[in-house]
Amino acid sequence: MNSRRALYAQAIRGPVLLVTIGILFAVQQAGMLPLSRTWPLLIIIVGLLKLVERLAMPRAPYPPPGGQAQ
Amino acid sequence: MRPRGSVTGPIVIIAIGIIFLVHAIQPGMRIVDYIGLYWPYVLIAWGVLAFLEVTVRFVRGAAIPVNGISGGAWFAIVLICLAGVSLFELQKPGHWWSNMDWGHGFNEAFLGEDHAYTVETVQKTTGAAPHIVIESFRGDAKISGGDAKEVSVSGQKSVKSVDLREADRANQQTPVEVLVDGNTVTIRCHQDRSGSRALVTTDLEISVPRGASLEATGTYGDFDVSSLTGNVTVSSANAGVHLDDIGGNVTVDTRHSDIVRCTNVKGTVDLRGHGTDIEVTNANGEVTISGDYSGTVALRELAKPVRVENLHTILSIERVPGEVRLDRGSLTAENVIGPVKLTARSTDVNIDGVQNGLDLTLDRGDIDLRPGHLPLGNMVAHTRSGNIELALPETATFQLTATTDHGDIDNEYGDGLKEQSSGKGARLEGSAGTGPDLNLMTGRGSITVRKASASMPQAAPPAGASPARAVLLLARPVIAATH
Fold first, then answer.
1. For chain B, which has fewer Cβ within 10 Å, the N-terminal or C-terminal residue?
2. Percent of chain B scored above 70 by pLDDT?
C-alpha cells in the first residue's frame, strides 16, 4: 500500500513540474515577471516534490539497533 | 494485464490536429499569433492532464506509470518552449527579429508579406517659422527646409500582413494627417490604429519652411533633417539620425542608434542616450554628448567647448579646430585647444598638437603626447598603469617632473633633465628656461621624454605651413600625409 503512494508521488513529479513551467512562461508572456527572475521557483518545486516522495516512502526500511527486525 | 498507455499523448496529437484544421478552414486567422501568445497554456493543460491521469489511476487502484511524463515527452516540451519563445519574440513590434531580412519565404510564413501604398501628398500653408511636431511613428523621415511657406508631406507606406484585405484595412486606418493649430503643425501617422495583425511602416518626405523648428519622435527608422534655421529635437527608440545645416540648437535622444551625425550646426548640440557612432562636424555652439555610445565619437571643427560624458569617461575640450576620435579604449586628438581634461578607465591616449595645456587621469592606458604648439600649457598626465611618451619641441620652455613607481625613465631630451632611480621606480626632473609645469606620473610603466623632431624620419614641411604645423607634421608623418 505504502509503495503505491511512493509510486504515485514519483509519477506526479513530471506533471507538477510541467504545470509550473507553463505558469512561469505564461507569467513571462503576460509581461509581469520574466523567467530570469522566477526560475528559482522551479528548484523549490523540485525540492518539495522530493520531500513529498520521501514522506510517501514505506516506513522502517532499516532494522532497529537491537538486531531483531519487526 | 498490459497496462493501458497514457491518454495524454493522443490528446496532444488531437489538439495539434485541431489547430491545423482551424488554420486550413480559416486561413485569415493568424494561428501563429495565437500559438505565440498562448503556448504556455498548452504546457499547463498538458501537465494538468497528466496529473489527473496519474491521480485517477492511483484512486482506481490501477497500475501507476513510473513517470507521469516520459523522457520523450520532455524532449517535446523543450522543443515547444523553444518554438514558443521564438514565436513570441518574433511578434514584438520593432523587435530586431522583424527587422532582419530572413528572405522572402520566412517573412511571408511568419510575419506576412509587405504591401506597398502611396501616401497622398498633404499640403498646408503656414507661417515662415512654424513649429513642426512629428508624433511617434515607425519609418524613415526626410525633412528638409525650403523657401515655400508651406508644409508638404508625402511618402510611402509599407504594410506587413498575411493577406491583402488585412493590409488594405490597415492602410485605410492609418492615414497621414497634417494638423495646423496656430503656429504648430502636427504630423500624425496613426499607426496605432492598425491593430496587431498588420505592421505599418510609414516613410515620410516632408518639406517645411526654412525657418521651421522641429520636434520629432520615432520608434524605428532613420531621421534625415537638413536646412532648417530653428531648433531640432529628435527622440527615437531606434534610429540613425543625420542632421545637416541646422541654424538652431540640436537635441537628439536615442535609445538605440547606429549613427548620429550632425554637420554644420550653428547652435548647441546635445546628444544623449544609447547608440553606436557619433559624428559632429563644424558646430558653432557648445557640444554635449552624454550617454553610452559603443562605437566611435568623432568630433571635428568645433568652435565652442565640447564635453563627452559616459559611465567611464569624462572628456572636455575647449575647442577642436582639428579632430578628436574617442573609441572604446582609445582617444586620438589632433590639433585641439585646451584646457583638455580627460578622466577615463582604460584608454590609450594619443594627442598631437594641443594648446593651453591638458589634464589626463587614467586608470590604465598608454599616453603619447606631442603638444607641438608653443608656448606649452600646464600638462598633467597620470596613469596607474601604462607607458607615457612626451615629445617636446626643441625650443620649448617648461619645468618637468616625471615619476614612475615601477619602471624606467628614458631621457632622450638631453642634459637639462636629471634622472634618478629610486627602488623599482625612477624620477626625472629638470627645466628649460621658465615655463609651465609638466607633470607625468605612472604607477607601472616606462616614461620617455624626447625632442619632437629628434628621432623622426626626415620629412620636409609643405610650403605655407605654419611653424607649429611643421612640428606637428614632423611628429606624425603618416597622418600628415593623409591629412
1. N
2. 84
**Domain encompassing residue A22:** 2-56
Q: Give tens-digit pLDDT for B92-140.
A: 544 444 444 444 444 445 566 788 999 989 999 988 899 999 998 889 9
Q: Please state, in angstroms and rounded to a whole number, the distance separating the CA atoms of residues B213 and B184.
A: 10
In a domain, A12, yes or no: yes
Is A67 a domain residue? no
Tens digit of pLDDT for each residue in B332-344? 999 999 899 999 9
Higher per-residue pLDDT: B214 or B396: B214
The tally of domains found in chain A comes to: 1
| pLDDT tens column, B5-34 | 667 777 778 877 887 777 677 655 556 666
A32: its cell numbers:
509581469
Mean pLDDT of B346-371: 91
Helix or strand run (H / E) with residue B122:
strand B113-125
Let me know: does B310 contact B327? Beta carbons within 8 Å. no
Residues in chain B closer than 8 A to A18 (CB atoms): 43-44, 46-47, 50, 69, 77
**Cβ–Cβ under 8 Å, residues B204 and B224:** no
Report helix, strand or coil for B334. Answer: strand
Report yes or no on A68 lying in a domain. no
The pLDDT score that the predictor gives to residue A9 is 86
Q: Are strands B199-209 and B141-146 parallel, antiparallel or unpaired?
A: parallel
**Which range marks the domain in which residue B27 is found?**
8-91
Does residue B110 lie within any of the structural domains?
Answer: no
Distance of CA B270 to the CA centre of its chain: 14
Closest CA to B339 of B322, B320, B366: B320
Which of B49, B66, B91 is the last residue before a domain boundary?
Answer: B91
Indicate the SS3 state at residue B323.
strand
Q: Quick check: A25 and B39 CB within 8 A?
A: yes
Does a structural domain hold residue A25?
yes
Is the residue at B82 inside a domain? yes
- Residues in Cβ contact with B276 at an 8 Å cutoff, skipping those fewer than 6 apart: B257, B258, B259, B293, B294, B295
Q: How far apart are CA B203 and CA B187, in angstroms?
A: 12
Residue B274 has pLDDT above 70, yes or no: yes
What is the count of structural domains for chain B? Answer: 2
Residue in chain A lying closest to B66 (CA): A11
pLDDT score for B382: 93
Instruction: Provide, as residue numbers in chain A, all residues whose Cβ is less than 8 Å from the Cβ of B85.
Output: 25
Determine whether the interchain pair B84/A16 forms a contact, defined as Cβ–Cβ distance below 8 Å.
no
- Domain assignment of residue B23, yes or no: yes
